[in-house]
């Protein structure tokens, strides 16, 4: 997921005031907000997703409509992986892990004394239940884990068994699979449709209020990290796209994750020590060709498109220079050299219209007509799409750009209902995880079924062999070799077309709280829409002046 936008600003203050006076419906377990507010520390207003209205959905395994904060702030993972510091792993609900059975089994020792927000103890039964649920309901298994079984060995020990060697999937297993309470979820006949309206979690926050226009999280008084969090109340207003810049200018949002066209003028406003921003790379933004389209399935068509696109102009004009053109493999560079074949490490994009036309000489021009789908709130992507349309017109490809609502875009791309689209793929502890998300055949779904990755629906035996080879070893050299093979496929077969590195958009104010991530202290991704990083950030914040 990516950053949000905002609503007509002339109404923001009035709407928030009205909501604060009128109150909202709902209420999570353990969630009264009165005591939190009485502590003196101010609430934090967060803009994490573009939404005209919110759905009452706090199922951490849902792909559409789930509210930010569900993962990390309410439901936690076993471990935390800092993608800004590859190799830095922090024990979370689990204190340690041990592989066995040649990487097909992993046993976690759990943190003692952790409670669910309703007061029930957190145990190995909850972890085993969560992974058994993912096995039983594949539509929830968003990481495509080959789960064979899960067993609680003791109250603090759980073993997970997999159908294949899974060393490399530790991040997917322990870092991006939120744990749910067995005593709540076992009552649901179909957890894939469960919206979890009163979520019970182990995280630092609980849901206290919900309406279609505003939901609120408050400090979990029984959280396992003593004294944390120090931010007592989180408020998520339902902003739409048009007026985030005004909201930021007027100081109505404390923490946002969005593209702002002129950030110095609109947001910083001559107060760089108070109004800060930090945009580290979080992945790669690519042009997705739907490979179930027989024309886009032709490699010469994709190669021609890539040759025609002026990525430097896209970064300069659409992205305002906030990021940079991606390496053709999509691997973050500099820094990812070990994961790219030596012959391609210095590769770079170069526009060549004549060569692109030559590649298309045997393709019927009548077939070269496509719709480019983008989320209309993401104004930089909308502008990028217009530039792409102009570039492709130069080689005889007709593109109609179409902007749709954010959730509509998520649904259409996930289900393969598009010709071309623009989408970001998140990074991971190494470039392999980004590659796996983009290319793994196990993530490809038939058109009409929602996918969790590989949205272009790439299916290639060599790609899957390399992905399996990486996961089958703990040897770093062998893992790098496998990823180099994936990089070569990106270079030579162009299953998806990298455009630019995806910034972790984050604007934050230091007048209420300090301790935010920075280039000097990159302890977590700084954007409020990145999970579980956003919860890690909240746990580090302290009231200004304290």
From TrEMBL:
Single GO MF annotation: peptide transmembrane transporter activity
Keywords, comma-separated and alphabetical: Signal
GO cellular component, one term: outer membrane-bounded periplasmic space
Keyword RNA-binding: no
SUPFAM superfamilies xrefs: Periplasmic binding protein-like II (SSF53850)
Protein name as catalogued: Peptide/nickel transport system substrate-binding protein
Coiled-coil segments on the chain, per record: none
A single BP term in Gene Ontology: microcin transport
InterPro entries, A to Z: Peptide/Ni-bd, SBP_5, SBP_5_dom
Superkingdom of the source species: Bacteria
Domain Solute-binding protein family, chain residue ranges per copy: 88-438
Family annotation (PANTHER family): ABC TRANSPORTER PERIPLASMIC BINDING PROTEIN, PERIPLASMIC BINDING COMPONENT OF ABC TRANSPORTER
Lineage, broadest ranks: Bacteria, Bacillati, Actinomycetota, Actinomycetes, Streptosporangiales
């Amino acid at each position: 997921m990516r950053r949000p936008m905002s609503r007509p600003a002339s109404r923001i203050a009035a709407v928030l005031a009205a909501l604060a006076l009128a109150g909202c419906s709902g209420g999570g377990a353990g969630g009264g907000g009165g005591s939190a507010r009485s502590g003196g520390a101010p609430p934090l207003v967060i803009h994490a997703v573009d939404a005209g209205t919110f759905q009452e959905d706090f199922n951490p395994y849902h792909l559409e409509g789930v509210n930010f904060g569900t993962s990390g702030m309410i439901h936690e993972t076993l471990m935390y992986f800092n993608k800004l510091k590859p190799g830095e792993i922090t024990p979370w609900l689990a204190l340690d892990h041990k592989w066995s059975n040649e990487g097909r089994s992993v046993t976690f020792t759990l943190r003692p004394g952790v409670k669910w927000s309703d007061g029930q103890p957190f145990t190995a039964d909850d972890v085993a239940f969560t992974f058994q649920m993912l096995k039983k309901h594949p539509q929830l298994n968003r990481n495509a884990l080959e789960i064979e079984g899960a067993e609680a060995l003791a109250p603090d020990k759980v073993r997970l068994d997999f159908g294949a060697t899974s060393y490399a999937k530790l991040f997917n297993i322990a870092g991006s699979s939120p744990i749910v309470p067995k005593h709540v979820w076992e009552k649901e006949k179909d957890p894939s449709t469960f919206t979890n309206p009163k979520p019970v979690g182990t995280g630092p926050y609980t849901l206290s209020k919900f309406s279609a226009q505003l939901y609120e999280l408050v400090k979990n008084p029984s959280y396992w990290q003593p004294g944390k969090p120090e931010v007592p109340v989180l408020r998520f207003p339902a902003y739409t796209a048009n007026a985030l810049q005004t909201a930021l200018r007027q100081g109505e949002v404390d923490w946002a994750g969005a593209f702002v066209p002129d950030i110095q003028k609109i947001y910083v406003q001559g107060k760089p020590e108070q109004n800060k921003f930090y945009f580290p790379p979080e992945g790669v933004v690519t042009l997705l060709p739907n490979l179930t389209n027989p024309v886009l399935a032709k490699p010469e068509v994709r190669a021609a498109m890539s040759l025609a696109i002026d990525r430097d102009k896209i970064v300069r004009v659409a992205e305002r220079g906030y990021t940079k053109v991606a390496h053709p493999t999509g691997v973050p560079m500099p820094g990812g050299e070990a994961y790219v074949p030596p012959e391609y490490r210095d590769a770079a994009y170069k526009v060549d219209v004549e060569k692109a036309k030559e590649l298309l000489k045997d393709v019927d021009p009548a077939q070269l007509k496509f719709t480019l789908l983008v989320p209309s709130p993401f104004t930089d992507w909308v502008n990028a799409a217009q530039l792409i349309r102009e570039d492709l017109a130069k080689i005889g490809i007709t593109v109609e750009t179409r902007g749709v609502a954010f959730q509509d875009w998520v649904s259409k791309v996930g289900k393969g209902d598009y010709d071309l689209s623009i989408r970001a793929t998140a990074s991971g502890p190494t470039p392999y995880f980004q590659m796996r998300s983009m290319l793994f055949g196990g993530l490809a779904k038939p058109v009409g079924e929602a996918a969790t990755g590989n949205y272009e629906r790439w299916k290639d035996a060599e790609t899957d062999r390399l992905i399996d080879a990486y996961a089958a070893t703990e040897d770093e050299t062998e893992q790098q070799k496998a990823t180099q093979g994936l990089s070569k496929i990106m270079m030579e077969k162009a299953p998806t077309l990298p455009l630019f590195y995806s910034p972790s958009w984050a604007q934050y104010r230091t007048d209420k709280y300090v301790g935010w991530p920075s280039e000097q202290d990159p302890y977590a991704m700084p954007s409020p829409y990145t999970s579980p990083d956003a919860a890690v950030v909240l746990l580090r914040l302290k009231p200004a002046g304290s």
